[in-house]
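Recall that a protein's primary structure is simply its ordered list of amino acids. Everything else, from secondary elements to tertiary packing, is in principle encoded there. The following example makes that idea concrete.
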Amino acid sequence: MGKCGSGHLLRAALESASRLRTLPRSEVSTVAEALGDASELAGNYERSRHAYAEARRLVDGEVDRARLLRKIGVLHERLGHYRQALACYTRGRRLVTSANQAAWSERSELDLASAGICSRQGRYLDCTRFAKEAARDATRAGHRSGWPTRSTSST
């Protein structure tokens, strides 16, 4: 990204926030997560991982922390580090203990990500189990993107 790119502006905003220390943590975490997203899209996975870790340090909610763990897991997955990715997804699932729409939605995304890894590893029984759990939680949440496709749910 060039000097005028969104990544540069987001990094500058985070640096300013760390000097000010008066901004709400939720706003700083939103900027850190946006930097992680922009860096991931640019293929800078290390910067993305650090930004997501910073955002995770600043958020309090279980769903937010789980979502950021899922995003870190995706980075591991992109690098072919399936065991680390699966560990992030598992940690995220353990964090989400609430029974509400946001929790079910995030759990469905975590289970769907886990199903994908298990499928790529040839662990089809685990893949099917995760896909079914994803479908169950997605249905509870009314979260259509968490519904598994044929490629992850067929037996």
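Residues 66-155 form a domain with the Serine Threonine Protein Phosphatase 5, Tetratricopeptide repeat fold (CATH 1.25.40). Residues 108 and 136 are 8 Å apart (CA to CA).
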